[in-house]
């Protein structure tokens, strides 16, 4: 992943390219070249590209990795205060705690709407098959974090230890 300094360098090169194409567009109008209108389009595109690269050079792109977390899939997210993640049925309680912390970091966004609530609630579930042809969701835990504070120290993780007894025993 590129750093903000690398995005700034790309911004400089894109800005120089934009100026060169703009000069070519002006020359196209002076000398009545057939491609002058295409050059105006390329200049506009390069200006937008330069602006986007400049924005990426201002905002750090940081993804926190929580050690011990397993891969998960988001199966429901209302864009506000509720989300559900799917985890493998072979997960342990310590892996679940790390995965819930990872999901709380990944799913946090300044753009989430929290009209009535000020907390994002993420539930972790897996699917078990008690009988042939029957699938049953099993919720193993959840995490609640603030919608307003990125560095929330008050994350509340609840693991439903009694539900782990229903998980299939691994054959390893």
How would you explain this protein's 3D organization?
With 172 residues, the protein is of the alpha+beta class. It has two domains: 4-58; 73-166, no CATH class. It has three helices and five strands, in the order ααββαβββ. A five-stranded mixed β-sheet has the order 1-2-3-4-5, with helices on one face. A hairpin with a 4-residue loop joins β1 (73-77) and β2. α1 runs antiparallel to α2 (36-58). The longest helix is centred in the first third of the chain and has 27 residues, at 4-30. The model has no long low-confidence stretch (mean pLDDT 89).
In short:
It holds the Pfam family DUF2518. With 172 residues, the protein is α+β, with helices and mostly antiparallel strands.
């Amino acid at each position: 992943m590129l750093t903000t300094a690398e995005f700034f360098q790309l911004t400089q090169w894109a800005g120089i390219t934009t100026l060169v194409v703009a000069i070519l567009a002006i020359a196209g109008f002076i000398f009545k070249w057939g491609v002058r209108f295409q050059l105006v389009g390329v200049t506009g595109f390069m200006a937008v590209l330069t602006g986007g690269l400049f924005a990426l050079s201002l905002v750090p792109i940081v993804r926190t990795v929580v050690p011990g977390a397993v891969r998960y899939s988001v199966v429901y997210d209302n864009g506000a205060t509720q989300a559900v993640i799917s985890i493998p049925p072979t997960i342990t309680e310590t892996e679940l705690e790390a995965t819930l912390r990872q999901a709380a970091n990944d799913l946090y966004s300044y753009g989430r709407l929290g009209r009535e609530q000020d907390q994002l609630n993420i539930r972790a579930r897996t699917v078990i098959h008690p009988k042939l042809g029957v699938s049953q969701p099993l919720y193993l835990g959840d995490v609640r974090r603030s919608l307003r504070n990125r560095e929330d120290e008050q994350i509340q993780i609840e693991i439903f230890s009694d539900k782990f007894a229903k998980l299939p025993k691994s054959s390893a």
